[in-house]
Amino acid sequence: MEQEVLKKEGGLKAFRIDAKERMTITEVAEILGVSTKTLARWEKTGKTRKPKRDWRGWRIYDADDLDHIRSFHETVFEVE
Predict the structure, then answer these.
(1) Per-residue pLDDT tens for 11-20?
(2) What domain range includes position 24?
């Protein structure tokens, strides 16, 4: 998946994402600056909603999922 990095400040990256694109847990973790294990833990404990899964059982995120996780991330960590 090709993404264009718009800016990088304070450790967080801003990406231009096509709303129809699907992302893996690795891509979402990189965008948010957290680990894949952190995302999986948030999902398991009910802090974020469960994403869709593909035929292999892999997590598939869309832009709405990313927005939901990003809003949770911003409530947990102070974003400047």
Answers:
(1) 555 555 554 5
(2) 4-76
